[in-house]
Design brief:
39% of the residues lie in helices and 27% in strands. The chain has 381 residues and is of the alpha+beta class. It has 2 domains: 2-159 and 338-380, 3-Layer(aba) Sandwich (Aminopeptidase); 162-335, Gcn5-related N-acetyltransferase (GNAT) (Aminopeptidase, 3-Layer(aba) Sandwich), CATH 3.40.630. The radius of gyration is 22 Å and the shape is globular.
Length: 381
Amino acid sequence: MKFAHIDPRKEPERAEHLWRSMLEHCPHHYFLSWGWVSTWLSSLPTKQDIRLLIGFSNEEPVLAFFAGMSQRKNFFHPWRIVALNATANPYFDKIYQEYNTALTHPSLHLDFSVFQQACRTLGWDELYLPAISAQFAAQLGNPQEHPQKHRMVVQETMPSYSVNLAQIREQNMDYAGLLSANKRAQIRRSIKEYEKGGRVEVQEAQNAQEALFFLEKLKYYHEKEWKERGQDGAFSNEFFCRFHQALITQRFAQGEIQLLRISTPAVELGYLYNFIYRGRVYFYQSGFHYLPGNLYRPGLVSHYYAIVRNAQLGYQTYDFMAGEAEYKKSLSTDSERMYWLRLFRSTLGFTAWNLFTAAKQAAKRSPLVYRFMKRLKKLAF
């Protein structure tokens, strides 16, 4: 197999043509669609090093992924990180793309050695594979089962929960019947309480301008909730805000964006920001209006109505995406896993990461030592 590196800024038409041609043949999720990818590329600063790597077999593209480059110094020498379909810069990667993978033509048998061969042309010390899908992990032969052999660290793994919307239609739209008795009771009690102020309604943004207005309302509730927890919300990242404003502006007309407002005549429950792609609804972000008392469950009720609405619209899946949150599990019918992996070119780097991680875990019993180890790890990696 021959490999080519393309700068998508210098050769945008060629990069778009090759990527779109691969999309036609390769299973993928919204985060690798041209709508998401083109917005991502145009939103990044020009100094950010991004390359499109294409593998050719008999002059035809059979493998494709974007590689983001980042370089920093550690204790040993300049350290080069390459990230799969990401930048390797935590600030720009806060947009949290998921179901990550390399686009692979059905004619190509992709395994770990082939993928490693492709990446070798990039000259890396550390290869970061964020939020890769279970399918891609399986294509690689589940190398996380043999971390020593591949010098691989499973940094994190999470379930990704979803709702089979066809099941709801098979149940004559009785979604509540698919839930546990306890969850049904919580939702019904909350709806009853909200509807003392009138019927709960779902309003969907009808154009990009209205969608951006809904996003601002969502942002307000989202940031308010996180500030009350003493933490920064997702919208505290300026790149995150710019990216999603551009995505909504550029992709709403293509039917890829869904902004929902859930309310009664008396009160707003909240807003949901979803993507729609190939029959799948991806729940991405939310902002809820919390009222005093345990009877009010704006998140549960909002998702309940959004799920029923999207089942009525004929979509196949309502995807909560990665996360351990109990509400995702309790509202879902299916799940799969995602993985955050790091591969190290040298045994020294692999060993050092594991030693620092083990020391940091042990140091959690002492907050002072934990903070020191966390800072030390940032210096080393």
